[in-house]
């Protein structure tokens, strides 16, 4: 099938993109990498009147650290994230995430902003961003606002708190503190598939080895990306020993809301959240204490 | 909108609509190398380079390419100047059906542009977005490595025999002398012996250069596009169907429903007449029997208009109770799928039994009663799909003589002609079927999926019509590899001697039974005879359900039968405390023994079709002349390091730790087609330059059969394979063939070609004898020339000119046929080593070893490629492929993401050993492509059982099934005795 008719607009600046979104409101859709949107158009699951192509906005493709924050332009392609020295060295959890998304052809064009704004609970970046405590920059007609990641997703799949006239322009991640580490683990039926379950874990330890920050995000085990708050709570202040990790993993599994589908029965997925959380926390601990 | 497209170094100004996809625009503009495979960007067949980066053009708007540079394979290299990648793809045997090749080449090209020295892992990663269903990927990886070396300026040893340049060598008739010449012995190019040599695929150049080789790669003026309306109900009667609005939509030329065409009971199964399966299908019917069943078909100016028209068709359905499980379908009171009186050939319509196959020898019950041990087991095979990358497509049109041309991606052109004739009312003389290269078949293109409707639309509109399936259509509305439930019961003596064996099979035939009879027969015929014992029983029922119909599939049922039997053998060994290989060696088929089930006395196919071809063609007992099982098993045992590894494995508790490893072995046998005689024909004729046209009706689906046939003809005629020009199947010009699929039928076609070549050789020799004035018997034919004992020689071209234009003009040509059943099975042993994560159930295959006894190997590169592809498909089938439905019979796995097939990253190391025949019969050529898939699943299941101590009896071996089985076993172990 081919997409239904729409008006195709190429935005040559962020301002122009926002003006177009402001003009057309909910009738408009933003076209970034297109790997999620174009199949939706082809199968007529989305029929926007206007398509705003933002692929020419090269000034939204960047990764840089400034003022203790990593700034990632929303149009940054997965392939660049994956290949970046900065990301590999300082944010291995992000490299973990980018490299398990679909296949390299997809990653050539898919963008980090699209992966988040599509709000598919099966997408991989949301869990990682939840674990990292990222902030998202939404740019609208009246300027920018910061949305903490846990307020970005709503209770419904494929829905965010972005306004129709706002564009996700940047992702901000706190620069890694000393003794911090994270990992993203994904269990797949086959390489490149959506996750059966995925777990992102990120921890910061103090000099005595106590957890001062813990973030756990879950992929594809609920209607939305899930932040395992109770599990994070369990970890905070602990020494992150195996017993605590096991306890937190059980808690994270309890916080998952999986349903039975093609990727497995609900109870299997829940069990896998526990296994993966355990492994992700161990790897996060290892990275936080100087290991790989 | 105006689009300035910079493509392959050319700037084109095009008018495109904003919603047009780049894929469609490129194909419209004649860039046929860009293939339509999946509509989602999952398969990579439509990959192009955008500013040097690979991108699936099916999920990109054409307008997005504005200002970018687009590269397709047409821009990579040509016949005269191949890019090193194109060269190494051919050389390494990495081109099979060729449908994925252009996309694969572009992904590889982009990789080498940025990384001239990639690691194997980097290559696998770079190719991961391009699915291939034929090769098994390892040859592709090798080809990319070798191209990288070439591009770095390194020398590489060719794998295949380099191209002779014969295709484009110039020929000067003006200076051609007709006089015999003295053979000096110098300066004459020696032609290598073709048989047994790694010749390049003769048709690979067109595929790596992206030439329009496939059914859909053409355009016709006035072409209409057809779309199919399918049923949303699993079972319903169409109370009323109103097409008024759809017909009124501008651009719509025809809307057909059951009301518009005659109701003719038929079968879509492309098998020799009279087809043995039920005739229970109608091109369009008033009853729909599965979600996805045909309801109506529309032809319109564009696919988009046709799609819109479908939405305007008003259908009033009366839903009927549906049944999806064959066990329930057999129960009294179950919904009946085929109560209609017009259908015929159904074994028992009242009980939903489409077909029934029964073989028996000895007294099975008495043997069970006297057995010292009885082992029983039930095995479940999933419903899966062929998932060839090329979707079903047909283009039909009237030619200048008012004859209907059907251009189709089919493996059974003559059957298409006969069946389309029956369904359109046109006599066969008015139909011409052209079968270009098939972009992957695996059995899925043995059925008529689109041809009849496309033809009916051309009849209705008098216009050329194209009906192409989308990937969703493929999953929902074509044919499936049927689910089977197989029960085994084996009676043994304590020493491991099998005294009775029984296999009962329930095949989920789906809504129509066309292929059900042959599928039912195949599961048993290609497994049980491995262990002949005096008392054998095989009984299979194919049962109707409200699911897509069962089709044919690679290995003709061996895959299913062997998963059950070879898993069961390991279970028996465990019960006996015996080595599983020793158990096999004790009971297996031996040379000189009769093949069970093959003689008519033992076979009872209960087809209600009069004269149906399912009666065994063997009038007498068939004894096995040769059996390669011992050598195959020995090789696999050694290469897998079985003894050593087996000691480390064996039951979970012995191994501790999260990751556990195991090894498993299974045996296989395969008879190309045990139930039907094959008739294959070949016509060969000489051209002035000493080349030959070979006309055959055996389609080429990528298994290399045309190359093998060219090698055989070339061998007999003293030329190179590239001097044999193969004409693709065309029922107007290529001779009759009952081929039911290219792999099996190769056996018969080989002999037809050999005979035709031998006849042509005799004709050549007699012409030369006349010219050289010596007896024909004294002449020799080799190296493009015919030589007399004294050294006087004539070139083939000279002989051709003399024959065609000389004193007694006579064409040099012959047609020959071969009609015989094959009674030389292929044998194989396959071994698998796995690693299982006991916390997640995830399985990683570390190694696959395959030893195949396939008679004389004509082309080792092609043979190994077939085997590797079979291994990949077998692993994919065993680990991840399954079609899943909801409770209403709606298919949930409708794309290549949800229905996942192996990619380059999933393939393990493989080791392939071809058992060379004893050389006594160079034409002992057997099927290799089918057996390669056959024993992968049981070897894998046996390896998992070895790793975990847990037997899984249901495929695919998904992580949750493995974990669940482990959990059950642990619960049982924890329970106090």
Structural write-up:
The complex is a heterodimer of chains A (292) and B (977). By secondary structure, chain A is an alpha+beta fold. Chain A folds into 3 domains: 7-53, Uridine Diphospho-n-acetylenolpyruvylglucosamine Reductase, domain 2 (2-Layer Sandwich), CATH 3.30.43.10; 58-174, Uridine Diphospho-n-acetylenolpyruvylglucosamine Reductase, domain 3 (2-Layer Sandwich), CATH 3.30.465.10; 180-285, Enolase-like, domain 1 (2-Layer Sandwich), CATH 3.30.390. Chain A has helices at residues 14-24, 37-42, 78-83, 85-90, 92-99, 104-109, 112-117, 125-132, 229-235, 242-255, 266-288; strands spanning 7-10, 28-31, 50-53, 63-66, 69-73, 135-140, 143-148, 167-174, 180-187, 197-205, 211-219, 226-227. In chain A, strands 4-5-8-6-7 form a 5-stranded antiparallel beta sheet. In chain A, helix 10 runs antiparallel to helix 11. The model of chain A has no long low-confidence stretch (mean pLDDT 95). Helices cover 28% and strands 21% of the residues of chain B. In chain B, helix 19 packs parallel to helix 20 (742-772). The radius of gyration of chain B is 28 Å and the shape is globular. At the A-B interface, strand 1, helix 2, helix 6 and helix 11 of A face strand 4, helix 8 and helix 25 of B. Chain B: This is Xanthine dehydrogenase molybdenum-binding subunit XdhA. Chain B: Residues 1-76 form the 2Fe-2S ferredoxin-type domain.
Low-confidence stretches of chain A: none
Q: Give the helix proportion of chain B (percent range).
A: 25-40%
Largest interface: A-B, 43 and 52 residues
CATH architecture of the largest domain in chain B: 2-Layer Sandwich
- So what's the oligomer here? heterodimer
Radius of gyration of chain A: 19 Å
Examine the coordinates and then state which fold CATH places here, giving the name of the CATH topology of the largest domain in chain A.
Uridine Diphospho-n-acetylenolpyruvylglucosamine Reductase, domain 3
Count of domains of chain A: 3
Please give the CATH architecture of the largest domain in chain A.
Answer: 2-Layer Sandwich
The total of beta strands of chain B comes to 33
Report the mean per-residue pLDDT of chain B as an integer: 92
| CATH topology assignment of the largest domain in chain B | Aldehyde Oxidoreductase, domain 4
Strand content of chain A: 15-25%
- What percent of residues of chain A adopt helix (DSSP H or I)? 25-40%
Protein name (chain A): Carbon monoxide dehydrogenase medium subunit
InterPro entries (chain A): CO_DH_flav_C, CO_DH_flav_C_dom_sf, Diverse_Substr_Oxidored, FAD-bd_PCMH, FAD-bd_PCMH-like_sf, FAD-bd_PCMH_sub1, FAD-bd_PCMH_sub2, Mopterin_DH_FAD-bd
Keywords (chain A): FAD, Flavoprotein, Oxidoreductase
Domain FAD-binding PCMH-type (chain A): 1-178
């Amino acid at each position: 099938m081919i997409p239904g008719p729409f008006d195709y607009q190429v935005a040559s600046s962020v301002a122009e993109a926002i003006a177009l979104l402001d003009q057309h409101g909910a009738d408009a859709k933003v076209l970034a990498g297109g790997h999620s949107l174009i199949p939706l158009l082809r199968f007529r699951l989305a029929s926007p009147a206007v398509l705003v192509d933002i692929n020419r906005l090269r000034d939204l493709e960047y990764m840089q650290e400034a003022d203790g924050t990593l700034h990632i332009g929303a149009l940054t392609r997965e392939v660049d994230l994956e290949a970046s020295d900065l990301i590999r060295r300082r944010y291995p959890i992000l490299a973990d995430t980018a490299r398990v998304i679909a296949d390299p052809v997809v990653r050539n064009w898919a963008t980090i902003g699209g992966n988040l704004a599509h709000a598919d609970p099966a997408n991989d970046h949301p869990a990682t961003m939840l674990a990292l405590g990222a902030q998202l920059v939404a740019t609208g007609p009246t300027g920018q606002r910061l949305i903490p990641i846990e307020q970005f997703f709503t209770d419904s799949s494929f829905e965010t708190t972005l306004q129709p006239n706002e564009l996700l322009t940047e992702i901000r991640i706190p620069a890694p503190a000393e003794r911090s580490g994270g990992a993203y683990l994904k269990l797949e039926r086959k390489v490149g598939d959506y996750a059966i379950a995925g777990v992102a874990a990120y921890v910061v330890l103090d000099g005595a080895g106590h957890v001062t920050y813990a973030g756990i995000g879950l992929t594809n085990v609920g209607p939305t990306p899930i932040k395992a708050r109770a599990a994070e709570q369990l970890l905070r202040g602990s020494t992150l020993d195996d017993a605590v990790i096991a306890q937190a993993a059980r808690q994270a599994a309890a916080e998952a809301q999986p349903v039975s589908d093609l990727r497995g029965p609900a109870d299997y997925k829940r069990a896998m959240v526990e296994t993966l959380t355990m492994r992700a926390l161990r790897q996060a601990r290892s990275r936080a204490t100087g290991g790989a | 909108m105006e689009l300035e497209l910079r493509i392959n170094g050319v700037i084109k100004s095009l008018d495109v609509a904003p919603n047009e996809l780049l894929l469609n625009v490129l194909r419209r503009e004649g860039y046929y190398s860009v293939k339509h495979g999946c509509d989602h960007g999952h398969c990579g067949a439509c990959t192009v380079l955008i500013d040097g980066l690979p991108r699936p053009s099916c999920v990109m708007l054409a307008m997005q390419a504005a200002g970018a540079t687009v590269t397709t394979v047409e821009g990579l290299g040509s016949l005269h100047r191949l890019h090193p990648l194109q060269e190494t793809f051919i050389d390494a045997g990495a081109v099979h059906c060729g449908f994925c090749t252009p996309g694969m080449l572009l992904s590889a090209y982009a990789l080498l542009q940025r990384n001239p020295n990639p690691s194997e892992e980097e290559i696998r990663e770079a190719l991961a977005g391009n699915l291939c269903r034929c090769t098994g990927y390892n040859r592709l990886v090798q080809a990319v490595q070798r191209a990288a070396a070439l591009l770095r300026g390194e020398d590489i040893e060719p794998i295949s025999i380099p191209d002779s340049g014969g295709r484009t060598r110039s020929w000067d008739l003006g200076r051609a002398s007709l006089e015999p010449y003295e053979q000096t012995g110098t300066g004459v190019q020696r032609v290598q012996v073709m048989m047994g040599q790694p010749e390049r695929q003769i048709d690979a150049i067109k595929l790596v250069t992206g030439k329009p080789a496939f059914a859909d790669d053409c355009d016709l003026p006035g072409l209409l596009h057809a779309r199919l309306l399918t049923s949303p109900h699993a079972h319903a009667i169409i109370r009323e169907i109103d097409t008024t609005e759809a017909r009124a939509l501008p651009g719509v030329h025809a809307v057909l429903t059951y009301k518009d065409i005659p109701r003719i009971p038929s079968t879509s199964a492309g098998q020799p007449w009279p087809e043995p399966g039920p005739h229970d299908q109608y091109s369009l019917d008033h009853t729909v029997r599965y979600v996805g069943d045909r309801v109506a078909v529309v032809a319109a100016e564009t696919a988009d208009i046709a799609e819109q028209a479908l939405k305007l068709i008003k259908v009033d359905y009366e839903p009927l109770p549906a049944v999806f499980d064959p066990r329930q379908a057999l129960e009294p009171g179950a919904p009946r799928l085929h109560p209609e009186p017009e259908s015929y050939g159904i074994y028992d319509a009242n009980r939903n039994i489409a077909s029934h196959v029964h073989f028996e020898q000895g007294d099975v019950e008495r043997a069970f009663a006297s057995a010292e041990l009885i082992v029983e087991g039930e095995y479940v095979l999933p419903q899966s799909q062929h998932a060839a990358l090329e979707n079903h497509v047909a283009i039909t049109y009237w030619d200048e003589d008012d004859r209907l041309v059907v251009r189709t991606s089919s493996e059974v052109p003559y059957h298409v002609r006969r069946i389309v004739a029956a369904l359109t009312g046109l006599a066969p003389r008015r139909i011409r079927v052209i079968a270009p290269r098939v972009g992957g078949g695996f059995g899925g293109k043995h059925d008529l999926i689109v041809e009849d409707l496309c033809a009916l639309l051309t009849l209705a509109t008098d216009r050329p019509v194209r009906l192409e399936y989308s990937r969703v259509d493929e999953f929902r509305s074509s044919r499936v590899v049927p689910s089977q439930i197989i029960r085994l019961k084996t009676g043994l003596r304590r020493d491991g001697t099998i005294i009775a064996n029984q296999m009962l099979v329930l095949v989920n035939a789906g809504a129509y039974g066309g292929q059900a009879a042959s599928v039912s027969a195949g599961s048993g015929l290609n497994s049980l005879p491995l262990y002949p014992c005096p008392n054998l029983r095989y009984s299979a029922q194919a049962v109707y359900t409200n699911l897509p119909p069962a089709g044919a599939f690679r290995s003709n049922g061996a895959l299913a039968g062997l998963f059950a039997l070879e898993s069961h053998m390991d279970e028996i060994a465990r019960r006996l405390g015996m080595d599983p290989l020793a158990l096999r060696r004790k009971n297996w088929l031996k040379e000189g023994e009769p093949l069970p089930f093959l003689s008519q006395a033992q076979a009872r196919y209960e087809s209600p079709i009069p004269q149906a071809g399912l009666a065994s063609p063997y009038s007498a007992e068939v004894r096995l002349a040769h059996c390669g099982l011992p050598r195959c098993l020995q090789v696999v045992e050694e290469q897998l390091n079985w003894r050593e590894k087996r000691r480390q494995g064996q039951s979970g508790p012995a191994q501790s730790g999260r990751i556990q490893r195991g090894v498993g072995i299974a045996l296989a046998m395969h008879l190309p087609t045990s139930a039907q005689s094959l008739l294959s024909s070949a016509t060969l004729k000489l051209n002035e330059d000493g080349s030959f046209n070979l006309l055959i009706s055996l389609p080429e689906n990528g298994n290399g059969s045309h190359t093998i046939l060219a090698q055989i003809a070339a061998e007999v005629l003293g030329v190179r394979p590239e001097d044999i020009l193969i004409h693709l199947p065309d029922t107007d010009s290529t001779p009759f063939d009952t081929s039911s699929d290219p792999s099996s039928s190769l056996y018969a076609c080989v002999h037809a070609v050999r005979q035709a070549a031998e006849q042509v050789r005799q004709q050549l020799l007699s012409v030369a004898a006349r010219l050289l004035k010596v007896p024909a018997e004294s002449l020799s034919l080799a190296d493009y020339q015919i030589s007399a004992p004294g050294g006087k020689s004539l070139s083939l071209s000279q002989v051709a000119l003399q024959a065609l234009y000389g004193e007694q003009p006579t064409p040099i040509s012959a047609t020959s046929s071969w009609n015989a059943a094959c009674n030389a099975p292929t044998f194989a042993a396959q071994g698998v080593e796995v690693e299982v994560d006991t916390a997640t159930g995830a399985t990683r295959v570390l190694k696959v070893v395959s030893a195949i006894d396939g008679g004389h190997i004509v082309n080792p590169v092609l043979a190994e490629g077939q085997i590797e592809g079979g291994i990949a498909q077998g692993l994919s089938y065993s680990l991840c492929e399954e079609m899943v439905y909801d409770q209403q019979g709606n298919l949930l796995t409708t794309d290549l993401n949800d229905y996942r097939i192996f990619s380059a990253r999933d393939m393990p190391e493989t080791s392939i050993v071809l058992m060379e025949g004893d050389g006594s019969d160079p034409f002992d050529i057997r099927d290799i492509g089918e057996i390669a898939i056959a024993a992968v699943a049981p070897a894998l299941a046996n390896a998992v059982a070895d790793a975990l101590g847990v037997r899984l009896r249901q495929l695919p071996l998904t992580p949750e099934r493995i974990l669940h089985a482990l959990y059950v076993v642990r619960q049982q172990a924890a329970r106090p005795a």
